[in-house]
Amino acid sequence: ARLVGEDSDFWHFFGPVRTLPELSPVGESEREAELLGHIQISMAKAPLNNLTRTIVISNTMVALAVAGLLLAWLARRIRLLTDPLKDLVGVMLDARQGAEDARAALAGPEEARNIGQVFNELMDELDKHKRSLESQVAMRTEELRQARDQAFSAHRHKNEFMAGVTHEMRSPLHAITSSVQLTLNELEFLPDSDTVENLRQHQGVMLWEANNLLVRINQILELARVEAGRLEVTLTETNIEDVLRHVEKTVQPLAAENNNTLSVKHNGLATVVTDEDKLQQILLNVLSNACKFTHDGDVLMAAPCGDGLLSVEVRDSGIGNPKEEQRRVFEAFRQVDMSDARRYRGTGLGLAITQ
């Protein structure tokens, strides 16, 4: 039979029907098969389709099951690798935020365990260095504290020594200046002669140098009092004109010695509330500096007032101060020329006390 057609539900086969050939006795010819007719067979497709569908479904379910098992196995393997890495990242973040004893758990694949071990060794080394650094810092801090205490103690002793020495030196200096002044007064009553004039000059030099030394001793004593915090301020109603004229009169000999023209200008407020003695000392220090470092020039002290405030300015045409030295002008015992052969004398305390 052969396939002669099909539709959606059946296959159609058509073929002839013959008799089977008969075997004749020995010696006779074989009898041929006879055609009996034709037959048509229709075979339904449904059983085969059902079988095919069943096979496809079964294969699909088996494939899905195998794929699910494979994915589950892969997910487990990935978690075995990623979970230790996640834990290690968390420990690292804790360590970055300063957590103490941050250590990684040695779990998972060999690679993850190796990474965790290296991290733990690194943290152990960092802790070791941290403890060493903290120990060194504690030692240095204690050394600095001891050095600070020693410096404070030495500074206090220095101030006490300076105050004591300068105080003891002022008494004999006052006696010397008083004796010299009395001698000068007595010389005024002697007849003029070369000897008397020489004595007057010598006594004048002695009185000048003694007063100069007394000023320096007073500066040292004043600085010691300032650094010891024992400087008291007494506020009083102060006449500005009187203070300026007193300062001008005191500094005038120094200005004349260097052939300087000294002028004082004041306008505005008549009085201010301040410490009169310290205001005079400040103006004397600043104005004396201007006269000392100026030769054949002009020195001006102006006291303009405005908005209820007093401002005192001192200007001169002297040698000036190098720019790189200006930031040091208020340092104690500091002068631009610190050599033994310097031209200008002084202790370098005037501006330090003024500040």
Structural commentary:
The protein has 355 residues and is an alpha+beta fold. 58% of the residues lie in helices and 15% in strands. The chain contains seven helices and nine strands, in the order E-E-E-H-H-H-E-H-E-E-H-E-E-E-H-H. Strands 5, 7, 8 and 9 form a four-stranded mixed β-sheet that branches. It has a three-stranded antiparallel β-sheet with strand order 1-2-3. A hairpin with a 2-residue loop joins strand 7 and strand 8 (309-310). The longest helix has 78 residues, at 110-187. It is rod-shaped.
Shape: rod-shaped
Number of helices: 7
Please trace the helix and strand order, writing H or E for each element: EEEHHHEHEEHEEEHH
Strand content: 15-25%
The major β-sheet equals: 4 strands, mixed
* Helix content class: 55-70%
Gyration radius, in Å: 59 Å
Judged by helices, strands and strand pairing, the structural class is: alpha+beta
Number of strands: 9
Low-pLDDT residue intervals, each spanning 5 or more residues:
none
Summarize the structure.
With 355 residues, the chain is α+β, with helices and mostly antiparallel strands. It contains 7 helices and 9 strands, in the order βββαααβαββαβββαα.
